[in-house]
Each structure stands twice: as C-alpha cells, then as structure tokens.
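Appendix B, Record 12. Input sequence as logged:
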Amino acid sequence: MKKIQNKYSGVKTLPILILLLTFMDFDKVSLAESPSVKKNSALPRFVSLKQEKTYLRTGPGVQYPIDWVYQIKKLPLEVILEFGTWRKVRDVRGGQGWIHQSMLSSIRTFIITGKIRTLRKSESTKSNPVAKLEVNVVGKISKCEHISSWCIVSADGYKGWLRRVDFWGVYSQEVIK
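Logged structural output:
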C-alpha cells in the first residue's frame, strides 16, 4: 500500500496586498449592489481551480486587491455567490473571496481533511486498502451516489473508494455521475 503525501506541504502562500494606482480609471462596482445570480446555476456548488496560481480578490473585479494566492491546481472551492463573471468562493478552511469564472473548472475534486485517510478497494471499511492519503492531498471525484456515504475517487494514479466524511468537496446527499 502506498502512502500519498501532500506535495504542497512545503508551499507557503502569504496574503498579497496590491496598492491600486489612483490615476487608473476602473469601473467601480459597489459591494452594496445586489449580485446577479444566474438562474440556471445552482448555488452553492463546488468547482475547482484551473491554474496552479490563482488570485483570490477582496471584491468582484481586478480593481480589488488580491487577498490570497492559491498555488494548488484542481483545489476544490465552493461557489457561494455570483456577480457577472466573478464568483465568490469559500475554501476548505472557510476563507472567502472573489475569483474570475475563467479561472474555475466544473471538474469535481476533493481535498483530504482531518487526518490520514484510507482509500479502499470497495465501499466498506473492511475492504482492502489501496493507498493512504495525507491531509491536504487533492484528487478527483469520479462518482458519488445519493444513498451511499462512499464516493469513487482518484489521487496520484490510485483509484478507490473514500467516505464522504473523509474529505471536503461534495455535499452529504449530492449525486456525482
């Protein structure tokens, strides 16, 4: 059995503050305005990052300062609000901010939470282990059924079953096909 480590454990990300130049003419968007939510997009919903380096901003536009820099491609995020082409997202630790929709993917991913988790051959705690997944390992969700507390996932070339409570990136009764 292989132990899969968090390959990003050495990556340090610090908040970045960008000073906006006052002579630049940006379209101002008032945060007090009511955001437009597309009627065909369910909220909240999970998405993932397309790029390894993605800026989380304090507001819905490039004129807002960068609050955080994500450096993990495919990191799952929860979209909680929409404003035009900008999405307000929440990460696994509860941090919130705005990311342009072009930086987000509908590919469903997960992140291991709490402690080392066991990826299993079938949907049973008595099933043979396939791999051990460390905290913060990111992988892809292939399938979750409504009545099951287990999902089929893959990480670092290993595929197997993982309990929903062992990771963040799916709702308790959500179906993923």
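The chain has a mean pLDDT of 84.
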